[in-house]
Amino acid sequence: MNARNGRVVGWGTYLPEKVLTNFDLEKQLDTSDEWIVQRSGIRERRIAGPGDTTSSMATQASRAALDKAGLAPTDLDLIIIASSSPDHLIPPVSSQVQYLLGAVDVPAVTLSTGCTGFVYGLSTAYHFIAAGAYRTILVVGVEIITRHLNWQDRSTCVLFGDGAGAFILQATDEPCGLRGFVLGSDGSLSHHIIIPAGGTAEPPSLEALAEGRQYIYMNGPEVFKFASRVLGRSSRQALEQAGLTLEDVDWIIPHQANLRIIQAAARDLELPLSRFIITIDRYGNTSAASIPLAWVDGLESGRIKPDDTLLLVSFGAGLTWGALVLQMAPA
Ligand code: UT7
């Protein structure tokens, strides 16, 4: 098998119908549209409905991607699901998606690196293809992070939203695929984004529930500082590895956590904001789904074109980070 480059052959999304606007939040919380827009750039977000699960959302996005690629589920060689909000702790949500898709006996793995999950997953997929191990790989970023939110905690609940984005890579010998990458992790900062209870360190208990320790805690200002540093640094490292410069990049697709973080990265990289794909106003922070959702937005709006060079860059719980330099296939 000689074809070792990964070509994007399909993509799809699933966004829950329910839209929660800042004005809706104003009615239930001591917050305002003005504060949320000024501090984060978010105007509205999607909230999963009672019929949605992480696996059902991932499956719907994946079906759309398979349709676009003209592939059957059994054509897949590997399924990678990036998520921090799986249906259950056990079993892995990836096996549920594999079953719901009808991808009989296809290997499936769940990858959990917070909001950086899709970047880790995509990089893994490209490397499996480069090694000649697999030809056709589905990578999904999916979250129902809103079910882990404390809706009384205005410092977190206004920021997040739900969604799923799926991409299919296929081996090709065309000039495209992964050009450079960097992945990183610094667990000494793990306490800055954490769900304290529910795992083995602090099993579920009435005390934990009473204290709300089953919800996401986030030290926003510390994560903000970290993100502002790491986005520019990892972007430069991935470009250097690719032997490219920022001038070679057509689009930057950053993790959509906060418009001010994206603006800080743009200042750091000395680039205009118009070079970034931005969806945070409509979807909020969808964690591992944010980059695939933004990527699809860029493709379907016609901004991202064949042969374009993309820089995907993310950070998240862990704390983790990652940047990939990709080249879209020729037309
Ligand atoms: O993808 C996962 C990674 N997560 C992130 O990237 C999040 C990174 N951090 C951030 O995006 C920002 O730190 C936040 C948007 C979370 C907060 O913005 P900030 O400018 O850092 O605000 P702050 O936390 O320093 O809070 C400023 C003030 C506080 O009031 P006082 O103490 O100055 O009186 C907060 O109580 O804003 C208050 N505040 C709010 N006010 C109205 C916090 N949340 C809200 C709110 N509405 N929703």
Q: State the major sheet.
A: 5 strands, mixed
CATH topology of the largest domain: Peroxisomal Thiolase, Chain A, domain 1
Give the low-confidence spans: none
**Radius of gyration (Å):** 19 Å
Oligomer: single chain
CATH superfamily of the largest domain: Thiolase/Chalcone synthase
Small ligands present: oxa(dethia)-CoA
Structure summary, number of beta strands: 13
Strand content: 15-25%
Distance between the termini: 23 Å
* Series of H and E elements: EEHHEHEHEHEHEEEHEHEHHHEE
CATH architecture title of the largest domain: 3-Layer(aba) Sandwich
Query: What does the overall shape look like?
Result: globular
Task: List the domain count as a whole number.
Answer: 2
Q: Give the integer mean of the pLDDT values.
A: 97
SSE-based structural type: alpha/beta
DSSP helical segment count: 11
Strand arrangement within the widest β-sheet reads 1-7-6-4-5
Describe this structure in words.
The chain has 11 helices and 13 strands. The chain is 34% helix and 24% strand. It has 331 residues and is an alpha/beta fold. The strands form 4 sheets. A 5-stranded mixed sheet has the order 1-7-6-4-5, sandwiched between helices. The protein has 2 domains: 5-175, Thiolase/Chalcone synthase (Peroxisomal Thiolase, Chain A, domain 1, 3-Layer(aba) Sandwich), CATH 3.40.47.10; 178-327, 3-Layer(aba) Sandwich (Peroxisomal Thiolase, Chain A, domain 1). The chain binds oxa(dethia)-CoA. Oxa(dethia)-CoA binds next to α2, α6 and α8. Oxa(dethia)-CoA is lined by residues 31, 35-36, 39-40, 115, 154-155, 158, 193, 218, 220-221, 223-224, 227, 257-258, 261, 285, 287, 316.
